[in-house]
UniProtKB/TrEMBL annotation, chain A:
SUPFAM superfamilies: GST C-terminal domain-like (SSF47616), Thioredoxin-like (SSF52833)
Protein name: Glutathione S-transferase rho
Family per record: Belongs to the GST superfamily.
Domain of life of the organism encoding this protein: Eukaryota
Domain spans labelled GST N-terminal: 3-85
Automatic annotation (TrEMBL), chain B:
GO biological process: glutathione metabolic process; L-phenylalanine catabolic process
Pfam families: GST_C_3, GST_N_3
Matches recorded under InterPro entries: Glutathione-S-Trfase_C-like, Glutathione-S-Trfase_C_sf, Glutathione_S-Trfase, Glutathione_S-Trfase_N, GST_C, Thioredoxin-like_sf
Residue ranges occupied by any GST N-terminal domain in the UniProt entry: 3-85
GO molecular function annotation: glutathione transferase activity; maleylacetoacetate isomerase activity
Name of this chain's protein: Glutathione S-transferase rho
Residues in coiled coil: none
Sequence ranges assigned to domain GST C-terminal in this UniProt record: 92-220
Listed GO CC annotations: mitochondrion
Family annotation (Gene3D superfamilies): 1.20.1050.10, Glutaredoxin (3.40.30.10)
């Protein structure tokens, strides 16, 4: 099963991390794991392009199946391996609905901004920072309203998808005192085996950044 | 069932359209359907905020359950109403995986389309650059060519993720339709053109076609030269 799976990934990439968490949760350790370096441009290398013509990570293969979209891979793993590992889709319909809602709201949180230097505007940076702060406040509100996990009592696909982004925010200096509920969520999920086992290796040895400390 | 559902939506919004197609496909006609006007800023009105604090449409309620993200609503409806209407998620691993792959690639297509046709909406006047819009158009062309390739590989008469209509079509067709509404050339993109022509005839899509597109059949020509 896991031996027929290959994952090409880069350290600290939330989309890659999601798939790794999902594989651990479904008891699929033992997959062929290939770590690549973004800095060295390895994500554009031939072995990635052979699986993912977009030259992006994660690139995931399971026999004849190819899934390079992290959400797609996570949902696929839960569907196809429903009967093993941890259940990532709740039974209760209301929880399922909340799970889906939070999974897709995450898109507002994860800003992917690649703007060439000549086109960067201070006004844009300010606007994005403001939007990010407002967005994080929304999630703090969610964690005030429900818990301990995003869709309620049970760890679910919503956590698989969103936790890596939350971890990133704290890695970039998000202040635990400003966002105590998110900090508590972060500290709870950090200790989960699937998350500990896939924690970005370079984060263990180096300090984080403080770009977000004033948010 | 459907009577316990309410959808607040705006004409021509692909995310709204996705949910409407899903509701049709799952035989949930009869839901409370509320068309709002973007021009009149009705998407920021209290009735929306009561369901969706983000002041965005679609806003969707089913009893006490609220799901406002279009993909989430589609997944929820398929999960909850699996045994009625069209089967939107295939069982076989390969078909399923391709469906998920294309569904999520569809978000890329949507973003890249928006970056061109809604450039002035997203970018404040002081930040607009010819070079940026030009790059966005090139990026969109690359993306569209990818999708042409996907359809070419599947063969004529196919849907986006294979021989059968799936959730990929529910979520991605509105984006494709919007591209053609904004003047995309079916001659330059024949496979997408054929797909568009095929899908336009599907009952769920006819039933949910944007009303203002019916009133004004002529769209814009923003994309005619790309």
């Amino acid at each position: 099963m896991a031996k027929d799976m290959t994952l090409l990934w880069g350290s600290g990439s939330p989309p890659c991390w999601r798939v790794m968490i999902a594989l651990e949760e479904k008891g699929l350790q033992g997959y062929n794991s290939k770590q690549l370096s973004f800095e060295k441009g390895e994500h554009k290398g031939k072995d990635v392009l052979a699986i993912n013509p977009r030259g992006q990570l994660p690139a995931f293969k399971h026999g004849n199946v190819t899934l390079n979209e992290s959400y797609g891979a996570c949902i696929y793993l839960e569907e196809q391996f429903k009967g093993q590992g941890n259940k990532l889709k709740p039974e209760n319909q209301a929880e399922v609905a909340l799970m889906y809602q939070r999974m897709f709201e995450e898109q507002s949180l994860f800003y992917d901004r690649f703007v060439p230097e000549a086109e960067r505007h201070d006004s844009a940076k300010q606007r994005f920072t403001g939007q990010l702060k407002d967005e994080i406040k929304i999630w703090e509100g969610y964690m005030q309203a429900t818990g301990p996990y995003l869709a309620g009592k049970n760890f679910s696909l919503a956590d698989v998808i969103v936790f890596p982004v939350i971890a990133f925010l704290f890695r970039f200096g998000l202040n635990e005192e400003h966002f105590p509920k998110l900090a508590a969520y972060h500290n709870t999920v950090k200790d989960r085996p699937s998350v500990k086992n896939t924690w970005p290796s370079n984060w263990k040895d180096t300090p984080g950044m403080d770009a977000l400390k004033n948010l | 069932m459907a009577q316990d559902m309410t959808l607040l939506w705006g004409s021509g919004s692909p995310p709204c359209w996705r949910v409407m197609i899903a509701l049709e496909e799952k035989k949930l006609q009869g839901y409370n359907s509320r068309l709002l006007s973007f021009d009149k800023m009705e998407h920021k009105s209290q009735q929306v905020l009561d369901i969706n604090p983000r002041g965005q449409v679609p806003s969707f309620k089913h009893g006490d359950i609220i799901v406002n993200e279009s993909y989430a609503a589609c997944f929820y409806l398929e999960s909850r109403f699996k045994s009625q209407g069209a089967k939107l998620i295939p069982d076989g691993p390969e078909e399923q995986a391709l469906m998920y792959q294309r569904m999520f690639e569809g978000l890329s297509l949507y973003d890249k389309l928006g970056a061109v046709i809604f450039y002035d909406y997203y970018v404040p006047e002081g930040e607009r650059l010819e070079s940026a819009l030009k790059r966005n158009k090139e990026t969109l062309v690359t993306e569209l060519k990818l999708w042409e390739g996907y359809l070419e590989k599947l063969g004529s008469g196919s849907y986006l993720a294979g021989k059968a209509f799936t959730m990929t079509d529910v979520v991605v067709f509105p984006t494709v339709a919007t591209a053609f509404r904004f003047g995309l050339s079916a001659e330059r993109y024949p496979k997408l053109g054929a797909y568009h022509a095929l899908m336009k005839e599907r009952p769920s899509i006819k039933a949910s076609w944007p009303p203002h597109w019916l009133e004004n059949p002529k769209g814009q020509d923003t994309l005619k030269d790309i």
